[in-house]
């Protein structure tokens, strides 16, 4: 659902008057938000059964759809999901980015897999952070704890 929504928004950037695409994007965005809200419990957001790869596409899709539709609830949900994901995918000791590994993934019943991480996860997190930055800029996001990656080599 999140990939389809992101694709629709890319399409709508070029063809903003396409009513069918706008309707489909609104439908998917509302379904994604409902799924997210239904999957949030006790501060633990696992919309799906667990985390695998491209996890940040969910917050990115919520933020982007919320920005297009002027839906603050959707944007807030996307930022909250991105913040939570940043906490989950961080080394508890040194604080650096550690994506969920593909050798076991991460579910409500398991530990986070630490091996066979996929580069696509880093790409998804950077894309989601850039989407959030395009809306709010760096300072408000740092205050929320969302911006956690330093996109400068060596840091």
Task: Provide a descriptive summary of the structure in words.
57% of the residues lie in helices and 5% in strands. It has helices at 2-14, 19-38, 57-69, 72-88, 119-136, 138-144; strands at 40-41, 44-45, 50-51, 106-107. It has 155 residues and is mainly alpha-helical. Strand 1 and strand 2 (44-45) form a beta hairpin. The protein contains 6 helices and 4 strands. The N and C termini lie far apart (34 Å). The longest helix is centred in the N-terminal third of the chain and has 20 residues, at 19-38. The strands form 2 sheets. Strands 1-2 form a two-stranded antiparallel sheet. The chain has a two-stranded antiparallel sheet with strand order 3-4. Helix 1 crosses helix 3, helix 2 (19-38) packs across helix 3 and helix 3 (57-69) packs parallel to helix 5 (119-136).
SSE pattern, N- to C-terminal: HHEEEHHEHH
β-strand number: 4
Unreliable residue runs: 150-155
Count every helix, treating DSSP H or I runs of 4 or more residues as helices.
6
List its salient traits:
single chain; 155 residues; mainly alpha; two-stranded antiparallel sheet; 6 helices; 57% helix; globular; disordered C terminus
List the helices and strands and how they pair.
Elements: H1 2-14, H2 19-38, E1 40-41, E2 44-45, E3 50-51, H3 57-69, H4 72-88, E4 106-107, H5 119-136, H6 138-144
Antiparallel strand pairs: 1-2, 3-4
Short structural description:
This protein is mainly alpha-helical and 155 residues long.
């Amino acid at each position: 659902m999140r990939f389809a929504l992101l694709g629709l928004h890319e399409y709508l950037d070029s063809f903003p008057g396409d009513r069918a695409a706008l309707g489909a994007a609104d439908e998917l965005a509302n379904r994604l938000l409902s799924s997210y809200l239904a999957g949030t419990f006790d501060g633990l957001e696992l919309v799906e059964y667990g985390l695998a790869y491209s996890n940040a596409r969910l917050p990115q899709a919520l933020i982007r759809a919320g920005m297009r539709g002027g839906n603050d609830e959707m944007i807030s949900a996307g930022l909250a999901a991105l913040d939570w994901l940043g906490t989950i995918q961080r080394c508890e000791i040194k604080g650096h980015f550690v994506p969920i590994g593909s050798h076991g993934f991460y579910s409500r019943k398991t530990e986070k897999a630490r091996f066979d991480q996929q580069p696509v996860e880093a790409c998804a997190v950077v894309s989601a952070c850039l989407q959030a930055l395009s809306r709010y800029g760096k300072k408000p996001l740092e205050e929320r704890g969302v911006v956690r990656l330093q996109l400068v080599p060596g840091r």
